[in-house]
């Protein structure tokens, strides 16, 4: 199997590292060679966070270059747009429609760009955008946006739902498991 590339992009403290850990666990359980690389800047201060997940028969490097991402999973609209050059020509973006103001917007030095979903589509990207925050809150916690996004991403994979659930069970504390399973289902079925 040719190597597939997934970028998980977002803002620090929102659960992107857990999402990459879950994906890595899932793909390993399905017999793939998997490499996960975390590249994050000022993540604890709300800065940009990027994680690469690469899988296939044999993966030699954890790094994804521009134009190589099969999927970009984004916790926030501006981050999806920022990493668009990394998406393959026929790649898929799965993004939360939430807008989290970066520091230049907070300080008044810039304005948050408008119509980002339309702009990404106009650039040729396939964009699956949904309000993951509302779905996470419906599941029981605003912190479950990451699991809602994975549920939505699962829509594009031919992997058994039981495997996704096994990865949740292996990586999520028992007291949060049912809420996360609900968040996954809401994302998948949105």
Tell me the series of helices and strands, N- to C-terminal: EHEEEHEHHEHHHH
Can you tell me the overall shape? globular
From the alpha-carbon coordinates, what is the Rg to the nearest angstrom?
16 Å
The helix-and-strand class reads: alpha/beta
The main pleated sheet reads as: 6 strands, mixed
The number of E-state strands comes to 6
Which topology does CATH recognise? Pyruvate-ferredoxin Oxidoreductase, domain 3
The spatial strand order of the largest sheet comes to: 2-3-1-4-5-6
CATH architecture: 3-Layer(aba) Sandwich
The first-to-last residue Cα distance is: 30 Å
CATH superfamily name? Pyruvate-ferredoxin oxidoreductase, PFOR, domain III
User: Which spans have pLDDT < 50 for at least 5 consecutive residues?
Assistant: none
Give the DSSP E fraction (strand runs of 2 or more residues): 15-25%
Mean pLDDT: 93
Helical coverage, percent range:
40-55%
The CATH class: Alpha Beta
The helix count comes to 8
Overall domain count: 1
């Amino acid at each position: 199997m040719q190597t597939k590339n997934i970028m998980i992009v977002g803002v620090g403290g929102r659960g992107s590292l857990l999402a990459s850990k879950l994906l890595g666990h899932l793909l390993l359980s399905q017999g793939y060679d998997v490499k996960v690389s975390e590249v994050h800047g000022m993540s604890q201060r709300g800065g940009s966070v990027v994680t690469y997940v690469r899988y296939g028969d044999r993966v030699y490097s954890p790094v994804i270059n521009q134009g190589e991402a099969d999927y970009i999973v984004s916790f926030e609209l501006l981050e999806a747009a920022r990493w668009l050059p990394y998406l393959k020509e026929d790649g898929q973006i799965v993004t939360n429609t939430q807008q989290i103001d970066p520091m230049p917007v907070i300080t008044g030095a810039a304005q948050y760009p408008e119509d980002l979903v339309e702009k990404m589509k106009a650039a040729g990207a396939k964009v699956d955008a949904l309000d993951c925050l509302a779905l996470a809150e419906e599941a029981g916690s605003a912190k479950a946006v990451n699991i809602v996004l994975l549920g939505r991403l699962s829509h594009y994979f031919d992997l058994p739902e039981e495997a996704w659930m096994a990865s949740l069970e292996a990586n999520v504390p028992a007291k949060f498991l049912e809420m996360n399973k609900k968040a996954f289902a809401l994302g998948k079925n949105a």
